Protein 1
Amino acid sequence: MKTWSRKDFLKTSLVGGGAALLATRGGLLAQGSANGDVRIGIIGFNAQGFGHLQNYLPGHKSKLDGAVLAAICDVDDKVLAKGREAAKQAGLTSVAEFKDYRKMLESKAIDAVVIATPNHQHSLMTIMALQAGKDVYVEKPLSHNIWEGRQAVEAAKKYSGKNIALIGTQNRSSEQIMNAIATLRSGKLGKIKWVTGTCYKTRDSIGLHDGPQPVDAGIDYDLWTGPAALTPPTRNGPKGTVHYDWHWFWNYGGGDISNQGIHQMDVARWMLGAQGLPKSVMSFGGRFGYRDDAETPNTLVSVMNFDSAPLIFEVRGLGRKKGMKAMDLYRKSSVGVVAQCEHGYINVAETGSAVAYDNDGKKLEAFEGADNGAHRKNWIKALQSRKVTHGLLVEGHYSTSLCHLANISYLAGAEKANVQLADAVASDLATKDAYWRMLDHLKANEVDLEATKPIVGPLLKVDAKTEMVSHTDQIVTDAANNSLIRKREGRGAFKIPVMQTGSMAAS
Ligand SMILES: NC(=O)c1ccc[n+]([C@@H]2O[C@H](COP(=O)([O-])OP(=O)(O)OC[C@H]3O[C@@H](n4cnc5c(N)ncnc54)[C@H](O)[C@@H]3O)[C@@H](O)[C@H]2O)c1
């Protein structure tokens, strides 16, 4: 018996070759391209989004079967021109162009969107796309703050009978990591004692400028800003005043923990087998080694306690020593995750390669499997089967929220003398250990902690249900919960729709 694919179904449903109403997908009235390919709209394609765009260009080496580019959207004219040219070169003559994604979402010419805009737009665009009846691939991290991420998860639940939403934390499709986790769960290595995620990645100064910087005439800055506070850019590094360096400003990003770090945070939480948020979080760090426009720390240690074991996360933007580009290694990786068990440990590197060692560092097993290029293929499978198996939005929300919690403790912290920091970490072995590692690293970079004091965040209790935090000092509790990384409701026409119902909606 022939199994009918979406393509077959759409082919037989075509009436007169027009883009007519074609099929029902779990209740959704779907439309498709003439050959039944899913029609994709890309939102934001300066860098990461351009790779996505190429996935849907006929003849491109990274073309994904079953889907085709139907529309492009970017607020920057120069970026739009690059997309237009790429589509033309690929022989696509009817790709629609938009500067305003809200107009794109109204279009009947697309079935699904890929969102690769800056972080502060991810949740809002995900919700609006689902409301408009589109399927969604949203880049990591899911959100700019915990609350809006929860709204996106609730939207995915609400529309789950009609549309799918998937998050681009691509390690979720790595067979190597899945096999490594199966070994962890088998208990062969004994119980997990702790998991450490590292994001040691060079992040140079972005330069120091005075006051507001100009925005290129071709950029619609109001649309670029979306739900964030509308303020002129105050950066002007090698990437210009608008693109990419937003990562280092709280209004848009969350520093490297929410940039590169979210990938390792996701793997760390997955290895730990922790579903949801930790019981507590505490962070310390600073922006050391240079003075520039940026706000987020380039050095951060966060310790999160789960019922099963602690998760320690370390960010370093400075090199191995002053003037050096090469980064420190932690158990063989600069960017990676180590799950330490009673009888050995597993190291997952940035590439996704996963290896088990005994406690003397002798290799026990290298895990096999397809690499993480599989995630985008799994997205196409999800579009066809109408079910997300890798990259569930709720998993993205929890892992993203761990990054946010780490930043919330940091933001609620204060500059302290190094001796006070030493005191604050003295009672917890895992935290103390990470503190000493950070001190060695800063010493090698000739950072004087008397001149640039570390910021020490409070130990915050986390309420997994309300996704809020608390401290014995009410002032600290309020400061932490009022942090824009905990909750921001959006701005004017870019308010985040409240998708939670009942009493939770107010939190
Ligand atoms: N999965 C991964 O491994 C991976 C790797 C790199 C980046 N990313 C993610 O991809 C996203 C984009 O990263 P990037 O480095 O390309 O950033 P970028 O700043 O270089 O590009 C973002 C693009 O989005 C456009 N944009 C902004 N607001 C828009 C709006 N309202 N409508 C349409 N377009 C809009 C900008 O004009 C720009 O062209 C980030 O969230 C990042 O975290 C993921």
Protein 2
Amino acid sequence: MPHHISTRAVHVVNDPPPPGSRPLSVPLVQSSAFAFDSADALAEAMAGPDGPYAYSRRGNPTVRALEQTLAGLEGGAGALAFASGMGAVSGVLLGLLRTGDRVLAQRCLYGGTYAVLADLSARYGIEVTYVDPEPADVEAAATAAGERPALLLLETIANPTGQVPDLPALLAVARRLGIISVVDNSLASPVLCRPLELGADVVVHSTTKYLAGHSDVLGGAAVFADDGLRRRIWPRTVELGACADPFAAWLTLRGIQTLPLRMRETCASAAVLAERFAAHPSVAAVHYPWLPGRPSYDTARKVLSGGGGGLLSVELAGGREAGRAFIEGVRIARLALSLGGVESLVAHPASTSHRELDAGALAAAGIAPGLVRLSVGIEDVDDLWGDFADALG
Ligand SMILES: Cc1ncc(COP(=O)(O)O)c(C=O)c1O
């Protein structure tokens, strides 16, 4: 006797595709759970990150495709995808640190990362020492009296100052002293820099930014030089629950396919705009690593390949009020948070992305109160400059 209509409605057809062909794009497996024929096989699947899929917080085929793609792009042994960049930063820090550990962190970091470090320090007894990312300073801080640091935290291109640390030299210091190095590579993307190839242990990403690239998805990832680290962190991420959603992973994979094209365009436009801003009488300073004469210029040429990225910051001669008028005056670029999408955005870091830093920390990080951040998209560069020049006027 056929089953009743409610049973037939619930059990929609779900057969694997017939052998002989397969989908060209990555299948979106939007399933929270996976069915097994054997109870033992299901129990076994709970053991590690790579067993058959059991439950999508522990692993999912679409998410795994993203993880393997990212590992391939960064030259890593494995990766874990997260719900956001902050999920990745928090997952890695919580997965690697214990109470009493010491962290050395670059002074200029994304505000959200700074906030996690402040919380870990205040509530979990983790000591955080901020350093200028100079090899001698890092070595001196690492070997100063007290516990040897467990972790060094850097950004390839710092948000929002565009500072580029000398990764090969700093990572060599970390390696020699047995400190785990974590590099946030969100602003460079693996197109401009692959920190694992320069000696880093872990790379973290806000895939929300250039990797996904279309301002329509939040995501994060950690990529590991050694698969042992991925296996060590995986149980913590399963507990934290900040796992990537399959649809978010699918959108990110789709974005990644055009990443090199978008990076090429954004780098070329940002370099042109940086020069035009630098020559404009209303502009007091331009922060862009690929601009000759900038403090990070020589290091940027050594660490980044093919360009200085799409983020540039400017300080206007009229200070904070001029900055406000500028970000409210643009018409093609939009006043919005985030960066790395196809559309150009402007923002004021001190009151938004870096609001967690007090006046002293902002000054130490080189973020002037009136500094304005631009994320350069892939619109025509002359249209963009027309918009910015009008807003400056
Ligand atoms: C360098 C950097 N790391 C991490 C993050 C956090 O990423 P998400 O917003 O995806 O959580 C951001 C966000 O702006 C960022 O700029």
